Please model this.
Amino acid sequence: MRGQWVRLDEVLTRIESHQDYPGNVAGVLAEMLAAVALVADGIKFQGAVSLQSRGPGPLTTVLAECRSRHLLRGIARWTDADPLPESESLHALLGNGQLALSLIPETADSRSQRAPYQGLVGITDQHLAGNLERYFQDSEQLPTLLRFARDGDSVTGLLLQRMPDEDDATEIELDEADAFWEEIGMLTATLTDAELAALDPEVLLSRLYAEHPLTLQPPRSLTFQCTCSRVKTRDTLQAFSREELLDLLEEDIPPKAPGEILVTCEICGASERFDAFDIHMMFVPGTPRIH
Ligand SMILES: [Zn+2]
Model:
C-alpha cells in the first residue's frame, strides 16, 4: 500500500484571506484543497488536478485546484437568497449534488489544451472523505482510506490506497494482501482527529503502523498561486463592445473611480485597472498581443 499525508496552514490562510468565508464554508474548501494536493501527489501527473462541487444547495460552487503538484488555489461561492446553514454536512451545503475530479493536462501551448479527464461522484456521504473513498473504490478500483482533520487555521489529510495485485499473485498472496489492508483499516480507525491534526507525520505513522516497515519520501512544500494576469483580464474585457466598456469606465462606484475600469480577481484579490487609453488600444486593429 502507499499513502500521502498533507498539512495546509499558511497556504490555507492565504487562499481564504480574500473572502469572508463562514467557518463551515472555509472548512469544506480547506478539505477540498487538501484532497487535490493528496491526489496530485499520488498520480504523478503534470498538469492541474481540480475538484469542483456542483449542486442545488446554498453553497453553489467550491473549486480547489493543484497545478504542477504544488501550486494551490481555490474559491467558494454561495447564494445570498437564503441564510447559509451552519451545518458542516455536505448535504445541507451542496444539496443533492456531485463532485467532479478533473485532470487537466499541461501542454506547452496553453491555447491548445488537451481534453481533460473528469470523474464524477454523487454526494451520498455527509463528509468529503466518504464520497472520495467511494469514488476511488468504484471508478478507479482502488480501495482507499481518506481522513481529514481541522485545527484552527490548518487542515491535515491522510490518504491510504491499496495497490493493485500482481497479475501472477497466488491465492495465498491475495489473502495476505486482503488481511493486511483490513488490518491497516482497523489501525487507521484508532486515529483520532486531534492526533491527525496535531502530530507530525513521522510520529503519527510510526506510532500507528508500528508493526510494519515504513518508507517516507522527502516532504515537498505547497504554495498559493493564482493564474490571473493583466493579459487574461484584458482578453475577458474584450468580450464587451467599446461602448459598453466606455459606459463602465464612467461609473462611479467606490472603490472604482470614474475614468477607470477596476477588475478584481475573486481568487487572489489582485486588482487590474484599465483607463480610456487601454480601452482605445484594445480596439486598434493589428495591435500586437502579448502572450
Ligand atoms: Zn488572481
